[in-house]
Amino acid sequence: xxxxxxxxxxxxxxxxxxxxxxxxxxxxxxxxxxxxxxxxxxxxxxxxxxxxxxxxxxxxxxxxxxxxxxxxxxxxxxxxxxxxxxxxxxxxxxxxxxxxxxxxxxxxxxxxxxxxxxxxxxxxxxxxxxxxxxxxxxxxxxxxxxxxxxxxxxxxxxxxxxxxxxxxxxxxxxxxxxxxxxxxxxxxxxxxxxxxxxxxxxxxxxxxxxxxxxxxxxxxxxxxxxxxxxxxxxxxxxxxxxxxxxxxxxxxxxxxxxxxxxxxxxxxxxxxxxxxxxx
Length: 279
Fold this sequence. Notes:
Blueprint: H1 3-7, H2 14-19, H3 31-51, E1 62-66, H4 72-85, E2 89-94, H5 97-110, E3 115-119, H6 122-125, E4 137-144, H7 147-157, E5 162-168, H8 172-179, H9 181-187, H10 197-218, E6 221-227, E7 238-244, H11 250-262, H12 268-271
Helix pairs in contact: 3-4, 8-10, 10-11
């Protein structure tokens, strides 16, 4: 068996991988495709464990993939998990109409009839009637900047049982830190953590994800943070797994508010964390 075949999961559609340009028409993998496939398969392992917890029923699982792009993740999940079981639905949410149409055509060619693709932003999806009132899982793989926050908001609004998030390009908090840098430097020695521009960007990214995790905990989710793959494969490597447990942690809400105050980010309380329980 060739090395390329060793990299592909049993039962995986080679035709799908060719359509996604992961395999060449000759069935070969290049190094970039092998890296991309490894990321998606590794993420699939995490997701599969969660999906197996859902009740066995035709309507389960319902998966909404935000910032779907070319829908690599949605197609792989459908091919490896939903198709063999004959159940469930995948919804791809994407803002670029040409990618939505491309995914629709590919799903039709492959007979993946329980896949839908919607030309919507994650923020607009919260209000859309084209998606279920409650969903089993929300995914957002490398959704840029505040698109991850919009995916979280959708998950909270639709009472998602699970959220699987790989954030990317967290710029909003870093911008807020830059704006108030002079004031914070005069107020607290902690501002030294973001005095230099490089540190501002890195700290902004770290703080963003810490705030997201606290928000999810405050809204009734149990949160695990881990690496998606080795750092040699991707620098956008943080994987946030959230499981709805039904009761929010008051301590998480309090810590979130304290961090917003400490870093001069109070303005984000209403724009990004509007579902926090009252103080």
